[in-house]
Amino acid sequence: MIEVDKLGKHYGSLEAVRNVSFEIDDGEVVGLLGPNGAGKTTILRILTCYIFPSYGTARVNGYDIFDQALEIKKSVGYLPENAPLYTDLNVMEYLDFIAESRSLTGNTKSERIEWIIEECELNDVVYRSIDKISRGFRQRTALAQAIIHNPEILILDEPTTGLDPNQIIEIRELIKRLGKKKTVILSTHILQEVEATCRRVLILNEGEIVARGTSEEIWREMKGETILSLTLIAASSQDKLPVTDSLSGLEGIKEIIETSKLAKNRLALKLSLDPEADAEEAIFDWAVERGYKIISMIPKAFSLEDIFIKLTREGGENAG
């Protein structure tokens, strides 16, 4: 279990993390999601006892970050954003070194190395120099060092950065397998990463948590907005107002999130609607009156991408 209480970190005049609190239960896979510079890495470094906070505290696996840092380091597997690899060693030599650094010896060490090579699918490169293997295999090797001592908690910082699509899928599958047995906190700015691997998300912006929960839970906390995808063919006679300005005046439309021009005078819009108003009927009447043809009008659930963009652009008004 991870417990964070009113955590903050200053770097000079910069407050990188501001009054952050959250809990992660045993066996949960939780995504720490936010744009670059949101404070994600700082929080993970505090939880792994690489740095101390300026104020607040945290407990990891029952241990206090100030008084029991060594116990935390023993019970946590940490993959920093820049993988800690010794490229002059081959994969087996590196894993052997890490195992001994984790006080594994004898049969226990041999069994753990054999297991980790199988689990991380490193059999094809085990005797190749680390500087000669692909980035995907290097990332697998870095993940192997984080779990070789069988930690109860995994803390992963941007684990798929720089990988190609196939490598990303492979690492995601590995993380999902590990998440069935361990508590995992995964930091990323890639939305698909969280949706593919995490049960719950903490959205961080400018050092503060602005939302938490599943996508559906966050959406409900954001007052139940409805998203509508609308595709139009331009009016035969040009409307006096631009489409966005004209639509914005309709009752029930809270926000025009996105517009894009398509081929053959078509325009695609993504709208945020008030669920209490009959906005769809108003849009239909508006289109008829102004000569627009509606090609499609598709309501959809608020996606994690919609939530992320809204919260991080608005500066965290919905802080949770």
Describe what you observe in this structure:
The chain is an alpha/beta fold. The chain has two domains: 2-220, Rossmann fold; 225-301, Alpha-Beta Plaits (2-Layer Sandwich). It is 34% helix and 29% strand. It has eleven helices and 14 strands. The strands form three sheets. Strands 6-7-8-3-9-10 form a six-stranded mixed beta sheet, with helices on both faces. The chain has a four-stranded antiparallel beta sheet with strand order 2-1-4-5, with helices on one face. Strands 12-13-11-14 form a four-stranded antiparallel beta sheet. The radius of gyration is 24 Å and the shape is elongated. Mean pLDDT is 85; it is low at 316-320.
Keywords:
320 residues; alpha/beta; Rossmann fold; 6-stranded mixed β-sheet; 11 helices; disordered C terminus
Give the topology, please.
Layout: E1 2-11, E2 14-24, E3 29-33, H1 40-47, E4 55-60, E5 63-64, H2 69-75, E6 76-79, H3 91-101, H4 106-119, H5 135-147, E7 153-157, H6 165-179, E8 183-188, H7 191-197, E9 200-205, E10 208-213, H8 215-221, E11 226-233, H9 243-248, E12 253-261, E13 266-273, H10 279-290, E14 293-300, H11 304-313
Parallel strand pairs: 3-8, 3-9, 6-7, 7-8
Antiparallel strand pairs: 1-2, 1-4, 4-5, 9-10, 11-13, 11-14, 12-13
